[in-house]
Amino acid sequence: MDAKDVKRVLVVGAGTMGNGIAQVFARAGIEVGLVDVNEETLDRAKERIETGLKTLVEYGSVTEKEVAPILGRIETSTDLEAMAKGVDFALEAVVEVPDVKKEIFSRLEASCAEDTVLASNTSSLDIFNVVEVKNPKRLVGAHWFAPPHIIPLVEVAPGPETTQEVVDFTDGLMRRIGKETLVMKEFVPGFIVNRLQNAIAMPVLEMLAQGSASPEDIDRAVKLTLGIRLPIVGVVQTYDFTGLDLVHDIMKGIGMAHPVIDERVENGHLGAKTGKGIYDYGGRSEAEILNKRDKLYLQMVDHLSKIKALEPV
Ligand SMILES: NC(=O)c1ccc[n+]([C@@H]2O[C@H](COP(=O)([O-])OP(=O)(O)OC[C@H]3O[C@@H](n4cnc5c(N)ncnc54)[C@H](O)[C@@H]3O)[C@@H](O)[C@H]2O)c1
């Protein structure tokens, strides 16, 4: 099936992620069945969807007139089996508990049509090992970010047996509903972003536990440095600006020397200053590269000050 032909999808789990995901599909003109364990949770999900849409109307990205039709495309129910009928894509966004995921995928496999793509929004589980499905070819990772109706990216990742067709379909569907996608070559638990987030969790929690800095100070430090640089140079290109020779010395000093850096240093590829590092700067001079980067940084500093991003929300 082509992603452009999808008429109806199923979202299982109407919590933080599920309700926002349902809203995104509905906004793109696709009917959604939204399933959770009880009516109370579904009522709360509907309220959250309405609140989310209200914010979008206030911001000007949705019109008042569009709200009722969007809400009208979302059908809520506690009956997964009934809602699984006639859907082209089913996304699981239930609690991060292996046994619950297992149960949901067994039920989805039993009640969806044979060619319905089954996707998981898991943050950290190795979903392809956790769940047991008879046809793993149609199982795919599709990892959204909170709040799903605002954060642009969905990471898509195949398991060992997922077909290319299923990956392309999922990628196409996410793009059709307005998402940026990133298709990984293979699934790794946590995909890209949560792996990085997990890496910073322990030092943050340790500093908090030891009282080394207040929560506000840690966030202020991040916002005033990484918060400005990351949107411009990401995490990989940052190394090219630090200089791979310095990165090499730092990593060696902390007992973490790595061939990705060492090999480049040996070949004289030190980053922006040599025109090649992990990135290739296509013959541009260091001055040109720094000029471009610094103008972007300056705009970022201005913008963040203007919107008062340094204050806690
Ligand atoms: N919160 C985030 O920032 C975030 C981001 C990306 C991915 N995720 C992943 O998305 C999934 C959902 O996370 P969340 O933050 O929305 O959790 P949540 O706790 O807010 O919502 C989970 C929902 O699943 C429902 N549920 C539990 N068992 C169910 C069942 N048997 N059938 C139907 N519904 C059931 C719960 O009632 C709840 O409403 C998790 O796998 C999580 O790791 C979360």
CATH homologous superfamily designation of the largest domain: NAD(P)-binding Rossmann-like Domain
SS-derived structural category = alpha/beta
CATH architecture group name of the largest domain:
3-Layer(aba) Sandwich
Total number of helices = 14
Number of domains: 2
Q: H/E order of the elements?
A: EHEHHEHEHEHEEHEHHHHHHH
Average pLDDT number: 97
Classified by CATH, the class of the largest domain is Alpha Beta
> Helical amount among residues, as a percent range?
40-55%
According to CATH, the fold-level topology of the largest domain is Rossmann fold
Largest sheet: 8 strands, mixed
Bound molecules: nicotinamide-adenine-dinucleotide
Strand content: 5-15%
Strand order of the largest sheet: 3-2-1-4-5-6-7-8
> First CA to last CA: what distance?
43 Å
Residue windows where pLDDT falls under 50 for at least 5 positions? none
Number of separate strands: 8
Assembly level: single chain
Rg calculated over all Cα atoms: 22 Å
Q: What does this protein structure show overall?
A:
The structure is a single chain. This protein is an alpha/beta fold. The chain has 2 domains: 3-183, NAD(P)-binding Rossmann-like Domain (Rossmann fold, 3-Layer(aba) Sandwich); 198-306, N-(1-d-carboxylethyl)-l-norvaline Dehydrogenase, domain 2, CATH 1.10.1040. It is 50% helix and 12% strand. An 8-stranded mixed sheet has the order 3-2-1-4-5-6-7-8, sandwiched between helices. Helix 1 (16-27) links the parallel strand 1 and strand 2 (31-35). The chain is globular. The relative contact order is 0.08. The chain binds nicotinamide-adenine-dinucleotide.
